[in-house]
Amino acid sequence: MNASEITQKYYRADKLPHIWCPGCGHGTLLNSVVRAIDKLGLNKDEVVVVSGIGCSSRAPGYLDFNTLHTTHGRALAFATGIKHANPKLHVIVIMGDGDSSAIGGNHLIHACRRNIDITAIVFNNNIYGMTGGQYSPTTPHGDFGTTAPYGNIDSTFDLCNLAQGAGATYVARGTAYHANAMDKLIEKGIQNKGFSFIEGLSLCPTYYGRKNKKGDAVKMFSFLKDSCVDKKVVEKKPELGENKVIIGELYNNPKPEYTESYQVIIDKFQK
Amino acid sequence: MSNNKSYKLLQGNEACVEGALAAGMKFFAGYPITPSTEIAELSAQKLPKIGGRFIQMEDEIASMAAIIGGSLTGLKSMTATSGPGFSLMQENFGYACIAEIPCVVVNVQRAGPSTGLPTSPAQGEVMQAKWGTHGDHPVIALTPNSVQETYEMTIKAFNLAEKYRTPVILLMDETVGHMREKLTFKDESEIEIINRKKPTCAPEEYVAYRPEEDMIPPMASFGEGYRYHVTGLSHDETGFPTNNNKLAGEQVERLINKVEQNIDDFSYYDEYKMEDAEIVVLAFGGVSRSAMTAIDEMRENGIKVGMFRPITMWPVLEKQISAIADTAKEIYVAEMNYGQYFYEVDRIAGKKCPVKKIVKVTGELITPNEIIAAINGGK
Amino acid sequence: MFNKIEMRLSGSGGQGVILAAIIFADAALADGLNAIQTQSYGPEARGGASKAEVIISKDEIKYPKVTKNDILLALTQKSYDKYIASLDKDGILVVDESVNVNEDVPYKVYKLPIINTAINSIGTHMVSNIVSVGVLYALMGDGVISYDTMVSSISDRVPPTTIDKNIKAFEEGIKLIRG
Questions:
Q1: What is the CATH classification number for the domain harbouring C151?
Q2: B109 to chain C nearest CA, in Å?
Q3: How far is the CA of B108 from the CAs of B37, B83, B119, in angstroms?
Q4: CATH code for the domain defined by A3-268
Q5: Has the ipTM of the complex gone over 0.95?
Q6: Do chains B and C touch (3 or more CB pairs under 8 A)?
Q7: Which chains touch C (3 or more CB pairs under 8 A)?
Q8: Residues of A in contact with B56 (CB under 8 A)
Q9: Do B175 and C64 touch (CB under 8 A)?
Q10: What is the rounded distance in angstroms from the CA atom of residue B335 to the CA atom of residue B307?
Q11: CATH 3.40.50.970 residue ranges in chain B?
């Protein structure tokens, strides 16, 4: 299917254009989500896309699925209710960095721990964009935000390590630049019967870029390209991984899935 | 004793679960908290046996979110908590109001504020039930005063949630939640069950938030082929966000009107020895039990006193309370808080007759003697 | 003639006074009476003195708490000390023999070897609560709840493998009063 056919089939055309700023990485990441769903041939009626609050959270509104735009940080808790209540549904959650790891951090680790069959994708732009550029848990140490006018003194979350440590059974990192790779990571994440966590490195030229003198969107995209290296490459040539962000499939270790385990309990009582 | 007893000695909390199951509950999400925990425990035990689903979430914020998710897939959903957890649920309670998600939220009230006295009764969330979440919104709250009534009102709570597409609060207190008394089960044929209105049109014609005559939009479940959008932002009838101030205002008005204009449909209350009452005690939940005993004693001494007991706490039963004030010489509002519902009663009745408070915040049930003393002292 | 009995059963946590109260409430319902059972929770229950209340009445019970305590059971010194003040002057006090009580009192005092009866006759202190049920049942007087109803209420509420032991404990309790 070519790009316009995909748009036709999966986007709510009347809701476009989207609200994202020129140069924002979110649109590219969202296209990866859609292409992965298309590749897997999922029935649109059985796909639920859930989001929280922030720039990323506007994504579901543009998509022609069952879509749920919830409260800040709580997307995974809503999604858990949906998946547990109707395990037949494919539940995909799109969150922002602050959304998923600050206000929603507790929900994130517990969704990971349960290994419930949800695919969580974080559009990480290292900033609170919707509210105008405050530092988030993924803003690099020393960088600036409107609430870090003298430089961010916080340490930065490695979201993938966090998800893996908390029990996610599939963990991957991709970027808005490496679109084809991102498609595949999401595709595999959806296929994993369990909790999948995929960090999508995005970019925010409007707030993060401007505040930190990162140049325009093109320059920021180039930075994504240059600063990231795939795990497989580093495995062969470790020296190429120095001072780089590792992308690709980081962890894949299936375990019993939550709703299936619950079904075993239900089945015990079926005569 | 026969093995097929149609009654059981049960706690109020247990009766709540029995009522929920009778009403068709299939999904429960919750977090342990005294004195409501038995509701989660019993739900965990019973739901899988009927093919339903229980989940213990990481906190009450998540519990409220999860039941909204459960309800969106078409399952009748409930959560239960107490004061501190009720505070945490307020955020997503508001979401359920604006997104019009049927669900039942049980709050077994304990003494506060904050952690307070976790095992002691109170009625400190009377106002929070109405105003706890931000913004203007509709609230239906029911308060039972016995094990039997807890069962019956839980069924009604589900029915009202489904009928009006709105979260319904069952506002219990520790006294009623923990006491054991007789519950007579109803036969399935005697129980009225209301299910949410579903769309009858084709999916491509479905306008998710377009209200019908009754102000309520039909609700499709996720997964049924009606792909629609749900948001906590102000939205138009398509369900998509709008910045149109007029539409936003109309939405809030409709949400409130669909509940408040139908108050006659669910005006539940009880009157005790009110026929010739000159003094009226307005009491609800556990305190009403004390009030009835107090009234029995005062009646023996020739005092013409009766009780009005709202079961529907929100919306306030304005008509009934106003009518009482037409004949009563004075009204005492007895509640296990520092005076909350008093302000509603005083607003409605205060211009017609004196309205006085009988309050207690020690974490103990108001006793009959305290009510008698307050009324005698007031003479 | 019986119209209403308000009982308070107290002891240390784990002695099963709540179950004892539930058995009375269950039996009362089975015999067509009204009953309400309540108990202490949390710090109060864990602090050494556990309390359960049961009200049995021919009429509807409104206020759910004990106001006129007709019968007080105290299996431990701590529970006796804590709850004795609430006993009605015309009431009945039942204590285990290990409890020191003030004898110069208006109410009737029954100081009985409840725990030792459980240990010596049944072989376990675990059934002290059911021995107590027997004692209280005998003191309640005839015509409140039938013997058969008590037996089936006990049978319904104790673990199935312990029914015989518990029925025997109940009968031993009755004997402590009736001989």
A1: 3.40.920.10
A2: 15
A3: 9, 8, 10
A4: 3.40.50.970
A5: yes
A6: yes
A7: B
A8: none
A9: yes
A10: 13
A11: 1-266
